[in-house]
Amino acid sequence: MENEFTIVLSDPEVLSQVCGTNDSNLKLIEQHLGVSIFTKGNELSIAESSAEIQQKFKFIIDRLSDEISENGLENSISGSELIESVLNTGVENFDAQKFSISIPGSTRKIYPKTKNQAKLIQSFRKNDMVFATGPAGSGKTFLAVAESLRLLLSHKISSIILVRPIVEAGESLGFLPGDMQDKINPYLRPLYDSMSACIPSEMVKKFQENGIIEVAPLAYMRGRTLNNAAVILDEAQNTTCEQMKMFLTRTGENSKVFITGDVTQIDLPKRISSGLVQALEILKNIEEISMVELDGEDVVRSPLVKKIVQAYENDKSE
């Protein structure tokens, strides 16, 4: 077939799910792309010479097959939901390398599921300092962790530093058993979970033991210069203005700094201003710093979480 572009899916069960009942998924893809899809054995082909359409086709099939392989045939999102999420990324040329995170050694490729998530990945690649704000479940921390692992395993940095402010909620670090590492670990559990979703837990543990992945309370950053590292400050809305300034000025050579937080969930005492809120205002005109705001439409953790976030957003606007 002239100008044929073919994708091979080796697993027949995944291929069947990608095609959908009575090829329903393929029909949706044909409708969106304006091309005909031909099946032969374990191959899916289109007769299309446009590189843009080929990239779109590959992006959609890769996303759908990865989703099925990762979550199982029963739990995977439908073809229509996936295609809608891919189109909602607003990717102009559908460059899969540009709008996905491929972690060396991992069988999983991370794709943006919304337009703002695609924008966030772009910002990670373009800027050395990125502020990502948004509600729970919008993917800001997970994408920051995935991009940090990509940089580490591509040998573009030598370490990952995970930082969180310790805001006590009825329990002090001093009452928790163990050394400093034991005390800080519960606060950093979400970051560990994100890492374990990208690479094997054994690899995460090995990196920690070798000092390649370091975890630290924000207070331990004072006086340090962070070179050749990806630094993630999570739950940044709970930093004070002084802490945020101290943290931001730790940035050294060949470092990437990702600051994530949700300005609607500030746990600081009422009389103390959030360092994240202040930083977003006073640094907004610095070209080298990117600020990406995600919202309720970007929540991908679960449909229920998305509805909860939107309900709170609607209540706030009334």
Please give a structural write-up.
InterPro entries: P-loop_NTPase (IPR027417), PhoH (IPR003714), PhoH2-like (IPR051451). It is found in: Cytoplasm. Keywords: ATP-binding, Cytoplasm, Nucleotide-binding. Belongs to the PhoH family. The chain is of the alpha/beta class and 318 residues long. The protein has 2 domains: 84 residues, Ribosomal Protein S8, Chain: A, domain 1 (2-Layer Sandwich); 206 residues, P-loop containing nucleotide triphosphate hydrolases (Rossmann fold, 3-Layer(aba) Sandwich), CATH 3.40.50. It is built from 12 helices and 11 strands. It has a 6-stranded parallel beta sheet. Helix 10 links the parallel strand 9 and strand 10. Helix 1 crosses helix 3, helix 3 crosses helix 4 and helix 6 packs across helix 8. The chain is globular. 36% of the residues are buried.
Strand content: 15-25%
Q: Please, how many domains?
A: 2
Identify the CATH architecture of the largest domain: 3-Layer(aba) Sandwich
- Our Rg estimate from Cα atoms comes to 21 Å
CATH superfamily of the largest domain: P-loop containing nucleotide triphosphate hydrolases
- Helix/strand class: alpha/beta
Total beta strand runs: 11
Q: How far from one another are the termini? A: 58 Å
The CATH C-level name of the largest domain is: Alpha Beta
CATH topology of the largest domain: Rossmann fold
User: For the residues shown, what is the average pLDDT?
Assistant: 83
- Show unreliable segments: none
State the major sheet. Answer: 6 strands, parallel
Helix count, DSSP H or I runs of 4 or more residues: 12
Give the overall silhouette. globular
Widest sheet, order of strands: 8-7-9-10-6-11
Task: Report the helical percentage.
Answer: 40-55%
Q: Give me the strand/helix succession.
A: EHHEEHHEEHEHEHHHEEHEHEH
